[in-house]
Amino acid sequence: MRDRIYLSSPTMHGEELQYIHEAFDTNWVAPLGPNVDAFEKEFAAYLGEGVHTAALSAGSAAIHLAMILNGVGRDDIVFGSDLTFAATVNPITYLGAKPVFIDSERESWNMDPEALKKAFTLYPNVKAVIYANLYGTPAKLDEISAICREHQVPFIEDAAESLGATLHGKQTGLFGDIGIYSFNGNKIITTSGGGMLASKDEAITKKATFLATQAREKARHYEHKEIGFNYRMSNVVAGIGRGQLLHLDEHIAAKKKIYEQYTEAFADIPQIHMNPYLKDSEPNFWLSCMTIDPDCKVKPLAIMEAFDAENIECRPIWKPMHMQPVYAENDFVKVTDGMSVSEEVFKDGLCLPSDIKNTPEDMERIIGIVRSFFA
Ligand SMILES: *Cc1c(COP(=O)(O)O)cnc(C)c1O
Question: Which candidate, 18, 54, 295, 366, has a CA 20 to 30 Å from the CA of 223?
Fold first, then answer.
């Protein structure tokens, strides 16, 4: 069996270990410490001026806190992207609130502003909105935020997959009231596990940090007026993050090259379409995905099985939330007649191996397998 080709695995460079060594040398093997403070500052500086951050144990923790900070509680309705990873919407459920799923549009596969508008007519008392930038591709963020503002409903941007992606030059994660990022193992940069909450409002990130450290009040003894969590990032993990951040732009450039290579390699096969993005957006190209025309006899499953047989990792598109057994009772809003856009993309699509350590030979093998189905 040949060496495995990965979908998207961690790529370390060296500085990560240096920062970990510093943590060990100074015995800061604890939550909090100089790496955490520095990582928060360096990350905020990357995003832009006037951004504040709180380093957390996971992107999911950041979403959970973002919901709490927006007052989401029992029996509230929250609108969420339908086509996304379950972690986008599960924290709504942690709080006893109920997600209502919003369909995607075809231009970026993200939350459809038209479906969102319709949802507001159906649920005028919605408490918050959370949308994801799928696979590193910015959503129609201006339209979505305008609709949320018009209804004076807070919106949370799940930029877990889209760190470094921009829409007309502005970083994803900054279009909402709160942005969240993830450093899980296969994300564009990783700390093995971790997350960040970002906001232009320092009061929000301060409160997030407070809730993430067990909501301990400033007092000599242990004083609690609120329920808190153990959600802070550790100083060792933050060291990995500092090292990775130095290479984020390099990772994005390498991911873009992979996307462009696939685009070029399949340009003469009219049944294949690469995942689309908006004209004025610059995705981070975290995962390259493709769809196959629904009336084509080649199906994504056949290609995925061919990859499996060659020890090449690939993945289906996220299964839409409205199709998940655990959310069978939840409402779903779409504006299409018949099948939703999210279901179409799920049915016709797959994620291609997008590991930045792929060699030219690996890419040739992957492309050859796909092309063989269309020969
Ligand atoms: C990875 C991911 C998350 C969760 O982040 P963790 O750090 O794994 O908790 C949330 N939303 C999306 C869209 C993700 O891809």
Answer: 54
Tokens of 254: 């390498």
The pLDDT-based confidence of 2 (bands split at 50, 70, 90) is: confident
10/356 Cα distance (integer angstroms): 9
> In testing the pocket of ligand 1, which one of 56, 65, 88 has its CB within 8 Å of the most ligand atoms?
88
Tell me if 110 CB under 6 Å of ligand 1.
Answer: no
Q: What is the pTM of this model?
A: 0.97
Query: CATH number, domain at 328?
Result: 3.90.1150.10
pLDDT tens-digit profile of 129-186?
999 999 999 999 999 999 999 999 999 999 999 999 999 999 999 999 999 999 999 9
For residue 239, the 8-state DSSP code is: H
Determine contact, residues 62/43, Cβ cutoff 8 Å. no
C-alpha radius of gyration, the chain, whole number: 21
* Same domain as 324, residue 266: yes
Domain assignment present for residue 7? The answer is: no
Could you tell me the sign of the dihedral formed by the alpha carbons of 196, 200, 205, 206, in that order?
A: positive
What's the gap in Å between 160 CA and the centre of ligand 1?
5
Mean pLDDT for 224-232 is 96
Q: Which atom of ligand 1 is nearest to the CA of 183?
A: 7
SS3 321: helix
Both 307 and 222 in one domain: the answer is no
What pLDDT, on a 0 to 100 scale, did the predictor assign at position 1?
A: 66
191 C-beta closer than 6 A to ligand 1: no
What's 181's domain CATH number?
A: 3.40.640.10
* C-alpha pair distances (Å), 178 with each of 42, 74, 208, 228: 18, 21, 11, 19
Written as one string, the DSSP assignment of 99-112 is: EEEEPBPTTTSSB-
Q: How many domains, the chain?
A: 2
